[in-house]
Amino acid sequence: MNNIDHFFNKDPVAFANSYLSYLNDVLRKIDTDDIGRFARTLLDTRERGATIFFIGNGGSAATASHFANDIAVGTNSYEKPFRVISLTDNQAIITAISNDFGYQDIFVRQLQILGKPEDVLVGISASGNSPNLILAFEYAKSNGIKTVAITAFDGGKLKLMADEGIHVPTAHMEYGPAEDAHMVLDHLIGAYLMRWVKTE
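The structure assignment produced for this chain is given below.
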């Protein structure tokens, strides 16, 4: 039984209080040194003019798109931009690859076309065990692309494979708090980078 099952209450107010309290506990356990390392990686990638790719499935695909928006456009840095692409966003490409080769290839085949050594690949996954993310990480690691895993639960294979990462410590199958925390990371990092650019 995960924590949400444990504190579930048919009173929505009581449930809301418990959920928010638990989410606050989860957020407090995230290692802020890891957040700082990721922010510096993004800044370094911008300095080199390299590209940052985001990938994820389901809710994490939406978070990947949101990250790409907030970093590429939200920072308002156009003379020296953050070159950020979410590989979750082109439905024609994703469905073509899925249909012709299989869903496990939707990210790795895009990376084979767009990725270059010294780029950065950011995988967002609560479980850390999605086969399409693992394939993309394997390709990245053998082709000079730095890997960053943003995970939850126990971190899965991605946490072990990644060059660096941010782990959200939730119980198994707690997708809500995991994805909530991943979006907090998006807005935290986006807010930091936007202000960094302003003070250059």
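Interim note for the steering committee: Residues 31-198 form a domain with the Rossmann fold fold (CATH 3.40.50.10490). The first helix runs from residue 3 to 7.
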